Input
Amino acid sequence: MANPFAHASDLGPLTGAYHDVAYHHNALIPGAHDLFTVRQRAAFSLWRGQRFAASLYWGTFLFVGPDHQDLDPASIFTWFMHSVQFEYGLLAGVALPGRFDSLVFEYGRTSQHPLLGGYGEVSSDIVRMSVWMEPVRVRSAVLTAGLRGAFIDLLAFWQSVLAKPRTAVLIEPVVELHHAAGTRAQLFARLYPRVHVTRTTGQWPWAVVEPRVQYEIDAELGVRSVGPTRVELLLDLYASPDSEQVRGAASPVVTAGVAIRFVSSALSFPSGSE
Output
């Protein structure tokens, strides 16, 4: 099912205007219920200075699969939207000296709404800090890297009846490598390994007892056109020990397939690395 901590804030410490729409088809490894997903992400700048920047982001993700025995459809069909996920948040970044690019603070919210029996809604507040390195250039190849750490909770302010998310702490290295394949195209690879520290009992974060450490991977490999408006063709892989959508039990998921993403952007980083 859905990834509760992807993907809108993967845009990083960006300011400017950004929008993408993507279609992901799990043709190589379909999930238990997911055949394809439709995703859109957007961000725009609130403030841009010499040393400081702030932006808003949001995203919507639709997860679709074959018809399921839990459903009683009014008409005959072969696939059904099994889950929808919403995300939004605020990023604030400050430029750093030397080989570092920026330090970014984030507050975001995410909510998953599965439509199948046996699955439950998940809602999370995310408080995250990340540090980004200056891009490293070797001839026509460019490496961009960052490290993010987050506390995950469901704040009492919302007066929600939902259980707290099972993940309490999230550590996320972010790596992107792109290489010019010509004047009109680039090869690229993105890797998002994540380490989850789970909450078993108590209140976040001080009374977590006997936490478990889990690992997941999110990766992309593809080719894209060059320019502020571009098309990306890619292979993607997502593997997680727990999507958190099954009540009281882990729900592992592995999907892999092909995707096409349409991007329109006018972006820059808080520091002078543009």
The chain has no helices and 14 strands. The chain has one domain: 8-180+191-219+238-268. Residues 1-9, 268-274 have pLDDT under 50 and may be disordered.
